[in-house]
Design goal:
- Mean pLDDT is 88; it is low at 6-32.
- The protein folds into two domains: 1-31; 40-211, Glutaredoxin (3-Layer(aba) Sandwich).
- It has helices at 3-30, 59-75, 95-106, 111-120, 122-125, 131-141, 146-153, 156-172, 193-211; strands at residues 40-42, 49-54, 80-85, 179-182, 185-187.
- The protein is an alpha+beta fold.
- The protein contains nine helices and five strands.
- A five-stranded mixed sheet has the order 1-3-2-4-5, sandwiched between helices.
- Helix 2 (59-75) packs across helix 9 (193-211) and helix 3 (95-106) runs antiparallel to helix 4 (111-120).
- Strand 2, helix 2 and strand 3 form a beta-alpha-beta unit.
- The protein is globular and about 50 Å long.
Amino acid sequence: MSNKRLLIFIGAVILGFIALVVYSKQEAANAPGVEGSNNVYGKADSKVTLTEYVDFQCEGCLAYYPNVKTVKEAYKDKVRFEIKNFPISSSHKNALAAASAAQAAAKQGKFFEMHDTLFDNQKVWESSEDRVKLFEGYAEAIGLNMDQFRKDYSSKETSAIVRADLKEVQALGGNGTPTFALNGKKIEIDNSVEALSAVLDKALKEAEVESN
């Protein structure tokens, strides 16, 4: 290879390397964050946090939904409630899409409105082939900006948030929905207002003792 061709070859390699570095930096800058969701209800600075990992298409989650909602209202001045995503796509074909819809609503401060709407209408959308149309109808009904909702519904950031929630619950050992955690530790709770309340009353009492 002549010196001229060698120089051209080396120059092409250098330019290719520079282009790769620039592209990598752009991809990193555009990549969505990996933090999980932040869907909080109740007393944000409470020493007691009850986290529920839900699959919006799960019948078990639907069964817990009214009792959890009742307890959230009763303890909202004492307890920090979190709802995170645990879509089990292997058995629930629309679960991941529903999680994306809820997180898209969260971007406009209306996660819990979408959360309730999805559970209230689970039997309508769970097997529907027109899930996007239905979710858009729910979004419009709760007053979301539709252009923004559509953008957030299909965004990489929304997907990353849901994946981060999944990773978190898997690390806790969650293997079914709903999965509950109290102050970051997985627990089992029977599906009744009384059982949920008893868990929170005990945790609040223990937190009060620790603070004295």
